[in-house]
Amino acid sequence: MAYFSQVGNIQFEGKDSKNPLAFKYYDPNAVIGDKTMKETLRFAVAYWHTFTMNGTDPFGDATMIRPWNDRGGMEAAKARVEAAFEFFNKLGVEYFTFHDIDIAPEGDTLRETYKNLDVIVARIKELMKATGIKLLWNTSNLFAHPRFMRGAATSPDADVFAYAAAKVKKGLEIAKELEAENFVFWGGREGYESLLFTDMKRELDNLARFYHMALDYAKEIGFEGQFLIEPKPKEPMKHQYDYDVASAYAFLQEYGLVDHFKVNIEANHATLAGHTFEHELHYARIHGILGSVDANQGDLLLGWDTDEFPYDIYTTTLAMMEILKNGGLGKGGLNFDAKVRRTSIEPVDLFFGHIVGMDSFALGLKVAHRLLEDRVLESFIEERYKSYSDGIGREILEGKTDFRRLEEHAMNTDIQYRSDRLEMLRGILNQYIKETE
Prior knowledge:
Layout: E1 11-12, E2 22-23, E3 31-32, E4 35-36, H1 37-41, E5 43-46, H2 47-52, H3 73-91, E6 95-99, H4 100-103, H5 110-131, E7 134-139, H6 158-177, E8 182-185, E9 191-192, H7 200-221, E10 226-229, E11 239-240, H8 245-254, E12 261-266, H9 267-272, H10 277-286, E13 290-294, H11 313-325, E14 334-336, H12 348-373, H13 376-384, H14 391-397, H15 403-411, H16 422-436
Parallel strand pairs: 1-2, 5-6, 5-14, 6-7, 7-8, 8-10, 10-12, 12-13, 13-14
Antiparallel strand pairs: 3-4, 9-11
Helix pairs in contact: 3-5, 5-6, 6-7, 10-11, 11-12, 12-16
């Protein structure tokens, strides 16, 4: 059965095209720098928002027309696989991502859940082989079921810890079988509601023990994918332990995990943490832990995770500058953890959402490459810190001075003030975006 029969393969038609079912900026074979767009951007479709979501929200029922969800249980799961691969092929993406319960329903027992997963994974494997589409990453849902209401690896209940471990064990086996390039941990319930009843040190220690066990099992079965942690500050927990990249990095350092994990950064999570998207990417890059990206954006007027498809070219440009400076994303990619709006109810709207997201990052890539090639910001930054290239500045960097010497320098020096010209730089960025369009 064809679920998107009214849509053909999405083609690149250029910026002058008026066809909403065509790429205006994303040309997968266009070479930017030394790589094609396809190689640099490594786009992925998120299974959950695209194929399992039905438009329900805390205030309303399902709104979306999704013919693959017309049946229940395993029949719906089987239909979703067929719809998914039809969508991947027509959109022209190389990767996809999923949680375990996205692809197969949980059973009444853990054994039944495993059985359901085995059936669907076998079909996914067949379609991956037939199409060449690959798994960017998979993950275990350790937050939705009531058993995880007090956490998974950080739960006060050891039986829940064990159940979470069993799910991740199965997830790693699936990752190995489907040759996933990464495995993600999103600690949606790994946090606390109140310190009145929380032993934070115990919970953090247990979380680290959990990750070390996962590493040990991955090594045992020969899974060589990159492990990723996805930071988020809140929602559902009031305070999650992986609040932002900085807190995740501190955790990795504290528990001897920094050589084994990188971060999967989501744009909307960055803004919820009070940061810009490019800040989180930059912090991860300079500390060597930038692994992958969940490509979306939030509504800054709302205080929750709206997961909109990205369309802000200013943001995608700054994001792509960080990714290019990082030398790309390695095993990671740009995964559209994004959902069409509740009123965009038809299956074709899924194409519109992904097209605008892919075009936004493709244009951001082109602008970022030009900015880096022309060394616009790099030259300005070098000039801004020029005082450290010689004299007392060089002595500071080389550790050849102390407070006495610095005091002497300060007493005999008149500080020269210089403008940072931020408004000028923003104007230049706007100019590059306009010229690249």
